UniProtKB/TrEMBL annotation:
It comes from Virgibacillus pantothenticus. This is Carnitine dehydratase. InterPro entries: CoA-transferase_III, CoA-Trfase_fam_III, CoA-Trfase_III_dom3_sf, CoA-Trfase_III_dom_1_sf. One of its GO terms (molecular function) is catalytic activity.
């Protein structure tokens, strides 16, 4: 696989860092999860549990090894620094200054291994007045202005059901930064520091809204954007059986097909009408959609190109033929649990595809093998590469 020769020391926990290192591990990187000796990654204790660890921990930490170290102890810190000698990447998500206080920050590590790539994922980055503030996904969305735009006009902001800042603003930029740094190292021979701010990442997502303000200095109301439910052609409508139909008829040809199918041709010319007219159109369309069940509407739109789809729940998603064709839900054998279902790999490479070759490690599963080999003739590199 593309990253088979790359070793990552991952000190992160919960979601952003583990998701980033999972992306790398799925494509062959040797990810060694460094956990504290007490409870390890907090995500292990979430519910529901599959064994002694949570379902989300199993999902995020496949293809990894677990080594327990207490970096506040000189002996364990020395072991970590020895691991850095043969590593390519160190990934951490502590608040700025914590790694320096422990004596394992980038300035120290690059003297041990000048090729080391050191990636920090934090809420607000290593610099700026917010750098030391605590936060979670909702806080980064709120500071970035995205939360202000989410929801219906006149209503309160709506919290998204997935962690946009953690994954889209943190994990993916971090993975990309690591890959860019690995590529640059091929020519320079030197590593570098990667400073990922989840707030920065969310701001970078606002490509369809923030440029409008930058150009006009006009604030946008919640629910007043075409792609945020303001327009009738891009909305959701409730069916007779209390299900929902998603309509994404942005292009005029799709809007025309939609209006013709629901028997409201008079709405075709009103696609880009005023917001007041959009409210009236949404009411008219809702009245029509309410007259049939979801199944009946899907049958009517089956051969119509109008970007109309059902709003599905997870039980329907896992049985979706497209999801199955793309292998986005995988069933894997587990030594004690039987079969474990996991989310598949979204990046499809034709020549060197990613794969899941091992499931999430037990807390400290590889610590004993690692410690016993540190003082022996076998190198750490040899020992930790075994047992996949």
């Amino acid at each position: 696989m593309p990253l088979t020769s790359i070793r990552v020391l991952d000190l992160t926990r919960l979601l952003p860092g583990p998701y980033c290192s999972m992306l790398l591990a799925d494509f062959g990187a040797d990810v060694i999860k460094i956990e504290d000796k007490e409870m390890g990654d907090y995500a292990r204790r979430y519910t529901p549990l599959l064994d002694e660890d949570s379902a989300i921990f199993h999902a995020l930490n496949r293809n990894k090894k677990s080594v327990c170290l207490n970096l506040k102890l000189e002996k364990d810190k020395a072991s970590f620094l020895q691991m850095v000698e043969s590593a390519d990447v160190v990934l951490e998500s502590f608040r700025p200054g914590v790694m320096k206080k422990l004596g394992v920050d980038y300035e120290i590590l690059k003297t041990i291994n000048p090729r080391i790539i050191y990636c920090s994922i934090t809420g607000y980055g290593q610099t700026g007045p917010y750098a030391q503030e605590a936060g979670h996904d909702i806080n980064y969305l709120s500071y970035a202005g995205l939360l202000h735009l989410m929801g219906e006009q006149g209503g309160k902001p709506i919290i998204p059901a997935t962690q946009i800042a953690d994954i889209g603003g943190g994990a993916y930029p971090a993975a990309l930064g690591i890959l860019l740094s690995l590529w640059e190292r091929e020519s320079s021979g030197k590593g570098q520091l990667i400073d990922i701010s989840m707030m920065d990442g969310v701001i970078a997502w606002l490509q369809a809204t923030l440029p409008n303000y930058l150009a006009t200095n006009q604030l946008q109301e919640r629910g007043a954007h075409q792609l945020n439910g303001a327009f009738a052609c891009y909305n959701v409508y409730e069916t007779q059986d209390s299900r929902w139909l998603a309509v994404g008829a942005l292009e005029h040809k799709f809007w025309q097909a939609f209006c013709e199918t629901i028997g409201r041709k008079e709405l075709i010319s009103q696609q880009h009408a005023t917001l007041q007219e959009q409210h009236r159109m949404k009411y008219v369309i809702q009245t029509v959609i309410q007259q049939k069940t979801l199944t009946e509407w899907l049958e009517l739109f089956e051969c119509v190109e109008a970007c109309v789809t059902p709003v599905r729940n997870f039980s329907e998603v896992v049985d979706d033929p497209q999801v199955k064709a793309r292998n986005m839900i995988l069933s894997l054998p587990h030594p004690t649990l039987g079969i474990v279902n996991q989310i598949g790999i979204p990046i499809k490479l034709s020549k060197t595809p990613g794969r899941i070759h091992s499931l999430a490690p037990k807390h400290g599963e590889h610590t004993e093998a690692f410690v016993s080999k540190l003082t022996s003739n076998s190198t750490v590199d040899d020992e930790l590469s075994k047992g996949d």
